[in-house]
Amino acid sequence: MNKEKRYEILSLFNIKYPKPKIELIFSSDFELLLSVMLSAQSTDTIVNKTTKILFKIANTPESILSLGLKCLKNYIKDIGLYNTKALNIIRSSFLILTKYNGMVPNNRIELESLPGVGRKTSNVLLNILFKKKTIAVDRHVFRVSNRTNFAKGKNVKEVEMKLMKVVPNIFKLNFHAWFVLHGRYICTARKIQCNICLIFKLCEFNKKKV
């Protein structure tokens, strides 16, 4: 795909969705950190349902540690890999409290030093909380980027590196949200809805459905 077509695609998204938001519900930096950690291999719907209850009880590093591992597991047991996630949340809460003065770190190195925080999670946090021009590549972004020929790659790191090169800076802050929502509701894994696709005429997928 050439740069002119990419620019046109992003311009359409920008006009249609000038202020896109991720669907995770949070009211603080720490709440978003926990929500993104919980969202791995889980849906935002399940995470929001879980955190709606959890955050009323514990939504700070101190209160999470006071809750304890066993109780935390009980609150998040409906989420996939909850045993591992609970342990990572406890460990990360301890580090944030003792090493980072209770604040979620605002740089990649420190974020990725937290247990359970990988590159995708740190990209989401840097982008949303600290307005950094990072691009997180999850399964939706990976699928849409490859399917449309916007940025092809064999793995998420490859796609991310290409996106960072081809997405103009003015669109980087919103890119992740645009492609996530497009992949979640329009260009889905099982069913593509080309009839209502905003970028149908520009997409280079060779199996588009009219």
Automatic annotation (TrEMBL):
Ranges for domain HhH-GPD: 38-185
Residues bound to [4Fe-4S] cluster: C187, C194, C197, C203
Gene3D superfamilies: Helix-hairpin-Helix base-excision DNA repair enzymes (C-terminal), Hypothetical protein, domain 2
Cofactor-binding details, from the entry: Binds 1 [4Fe-4S] cluster.
EC numbers for this chain: 4.2.99.18
Function of the molecule: DNA repair enzyme that has both DNA N-glycosylase activity and AP-lyase activity. The DNA N-glycosylase activity releases various damaged pyrimidines from DNA by cleaving the N-glycosidic bond, leaving an AP (apurinic/apyrimidinic) site. The AP-lyase activity cleaves the phosphodiester bond 3' to the AP site by a beta-elimination, leaving a 3'-terminal unsaturated sugar and a product with a terminal 5'-phosphate.
Protein name (record): Endonuclease III
Organism annotation: Buchnera aphidicola (Macrosiphum gaurae)
